[in-house]
Amino acid sequence: MTATTPSVRRQKEPDRPAALGRRQVHAVAGCYFVASFAALGLPPYLTEILPELGDRTARWAGLLYVVPTVFGALGAPLWGRLADRFGRKRLLLRAQLGLALAFVLAGWADSLGTFTAALVLQGILGGTFAASNGYLAASLEGPGLSRALTLMQGSARAALVVAPIVVGALSPWLSPHRQYALLAVLPLAAAVMLCLLPEPGRPQVRAAEPVDVPLPTATPLRALYVYEFTFVFSTVISFPYLIALIEDRIPGISPAVSGVLFALPHLCYLLCAMQVHGRFVERPRLGIALGFGFIALGLAGHGLAHSLAAFTAVRLLLGVGLTLGLVCLSVLAADCAKGRPPGGMFGSLEFVSKGGAVAAGLAAAAGNSLLGPAAPVLTGTAVALGTACAVGLPALFRRSTRIRIRVRDRIRWSP
Fold it and tell me: Could you give the maximum distance between any two Cα atoms of the chain, in Å?
């Protein structure tokens, strides 16, 4: 008896509506880029903002840095499920308008309590990344979706590189605190742009013919969630104390050079992501294993680097791992989105991702206080290396088993 794929007899439905065009996908990515400017560009300046609000030594900067992340993680699954029920475009617009409201409140806050409440609102009402991914997944699938998710990650990397530079350039004329209110214009502009985009979804069925349609089999989510958590943890753990590590190893280095070293992995992604997508779209697990391997090498190199050339080399190694990991996780996420409500899935994925970032921040703070600025990168090395082995070794074992079986069969049937 042979196993058969279960099927149901139901009305024949047409294919998905025409996929979003390139301009529309780029518009969604552009909206995320401009809306995330304040969210990504202003937190590095919390040590300058908090003294204006009464915290003279900025001792709450570390805690407030992760407040939007924590509350964003808590709210992401709920907003994702609501998007599946009430419409992805509506919930994406809600996220942009929620960011604008939170930024205005933060920019006009006159006390630490009000500013903290604004950051809480930013986390709860935001979630533009997961909302944008859910919007794209409702109209795209397969390689088209993974390419769009890769572009979305490029928007995040670009904002992470450009936004702090722009905020710093504006600081002589407008304090970073008041820039929150100014930059609230950006998510409002993104909301206006999104109003011009269509609502993704299946069209109404006119004619119906009963046909046997196989039930879709969804890719298990556990592996995606584990890879996402460990990837975010092993990369983000190096962020908070990287500048301190560089200044400790290379005394007298300029802040501009330190900033370039910080940005190198993200620039690597911007330059190479689409080429990597083309090479690994059919084998994402191989790319994930290689990505974790390069991340482990790059982070381990941080513990040994004592010169500008060495730090440049290890940051580029980390950039290769970051690019491989992000691209191949996008491919795996696109595969997992088949047969699932995209809002709920990407909301849960965002919860896992932000959980990894929060855990990385706590681990980095604990390691730095106990062993110094090199401890976070060594912790990240151990996590990345363990994940690379967990992903890669079973595949190598299965491949070697298949090779042995082929060789044995050839010997058995050879004359």
Answer: 88
